[in-house]
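Q: Entry one of two.
A:
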Amino acid sequence: MDKKSNRADQYDDPGFNYLHYWDGRKYEHQAELMAIRRLLKGKHFKRAVDVGGGYGRLSISLKAFADEVVLAEPSQQQLDIAKRYLGKDSGVERQLMQADDLKFESNTIDLVTMIRVMHHLENPIPELSEIERVLRPGGLAIIEVANYMHALNRLKYLVKGKKLPTNPVDIRSPEHKGENDITFVNHNPYTVIKQLKKTGFTIERILSVSNLRMPTLKKIVPINAMIAIEGVLQPTLAKSFFGPSVFFLVKKPD
């Protein structure tokens, strides 16, 4: 595997605070929370791990579904921010580790989430395999994918008379494509489905997420209205991979 895709350099940069990245992104945050709660509704787990969960933005929501929650994050700076963000009584354990080298014994975790990580992985097979390894038989994982097949891109390719690529697409601007820059890619969901199945997972459910992620809409439509509409669109548009983000609920066979 290309080790560059593993790196957390940007997230360890003192000049970059991922917590502040989420300023003005309340809609996206609420849409992702909605997806997690929808996929896990009625379920409860003993041990859950949020892989690459940054400062714990979504880790805390897993406390409603699991007795034990671990934030497994490769950036020490993010873990330090998480200590302040989550507070000492959050009940979320923080551990420094890479997604392709999880420091858990095999077959010991009941739930894994990996959200906003795949866009750093050109080849996610090592990370998916590691998640499969640590999950117990019958365990579940939520894998979020930055979707290159979203509706706007499909329209652009249709107009050009071209087919959408099946391989990951580097979405970085030219000035950020240097050897020392962190990877940012979007994926074709059909390719990811093949990778998930190759790793041994079965697909339990799919959601289309952040379907209204457009700057203009966010300026003119009240957040409560956007979230209400999002609630309808997530399952309705799932099979069409409409939105810029796709959530897969997958299972390790019993």
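Q: Entry two of two.
A:
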Amino acid sequence: MLFPKSNSKEKKENTALMIVILILSIPCFALSLVHNGFLSLLPFVRDDFLLTRSQIGYYSTFIFISASLLAIFTGDIVDKFGPKKSVIAGIISMSFLWLLYGFSVNYNMLLFLALIAGIGFSIITPSVNKGVMLAVSPGKRAISMGITQMGFGLGGILGTSFLPLLARIYGWRFAVQIAAIFAMITGVLVFKYYQEVDIQQKTIIESDKKDTQKSFKENLCFIIKNKKLLKICIVGTIFGISVGAVLPHFSVFLTEDLRLAVTSAGLAFAIMQLGGIISRPFWGWISDKIFKGNRNISLFVIGISIGIVYLLFAFFISLMQGNLFITFLFSFLLGCTSSGWAGVHFVSVVEFAGDKLAGIATGLSLVFLRIGMLAAPPIFGFIADINGNYQFCWLTFGIFITIVSFLFLQKD
């Protein structure tokens, strides 16, 4: 259980807290629904603008370039203005730009809009993380963060399921604009119902305002000097690598190496995503309850689990071929590990940074995560091209992730 049995007063507080957590998951849901949904519309965009495969790949590059480069700056903005104002600004700005996607006269215009949209993209996660940090006590933070992060998985599944259907009937422009309007509505809901802090915390937040008025340079220097935090961010690159290697290549692996039909491969991919959704609060519960808030041990166990599952794919490819049950089981475990780390990782970052600098610390962690996400896909694919299959990819990445995970146990 997220919250244990308690008296009537505690029940009211727990209910109010749960409402805050669910509200904070809304921007994650909306962001993922539109972003991942639009990625599923890229084949329609390709046909409309007569693009090559390389040109199609530019979209993710453009939106993640600005999102990565500005993550630390937007995190500092979150610390100064608070999670509510920041998350609303992020949702509304991105919704407006997504709406403009539908009016793009050429692909260059769409890429320019994506570059600007990356700014709003980089605000959402620091805002949500800071909101959880302010609202939730330490013993419940990891599982609470996991619940908010579930929004990304649910939004991704719904976006990739429904937007292509709309695009087939009404065109990709209409589909993305409908999604943008939906995101705007979620922004209004957050504005109306999200209460940034409760009464007990207001005095704490007021006393912290002076500290958050320090310059960006002072805050960044303070964060970088925090060895515990810096270690979590740097070693946490393996989490970006784990998800960055899987998402672009998993369907190809299923259809080419395992020779699955497209429909079976799609189901396996969906099961993998389901594993990521379920495991985020589950890993948070383990970190909070089993490991008693010891984040280094929690991250080490998650990292080792990712490495083991990668090695399972390397050594049991022959067992998976022709056996859908084993394939679906391994796919679920892959989702539980390679995508389930987000809640524990982000709560570790904000706890080591402190609530005053949770935004800028999240921004710093996102830089390292996205480096892993951007670097892993081409390397994973290059190894597969050399060997003619993905077996050595799973083996190489599994060994690497396992070894690097031990750095979480290194004394600071």
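A: Comment on entry two: Residues 198-207 have pLDDT under 50 and may be disordered. The radius of gyration is 21 Å.
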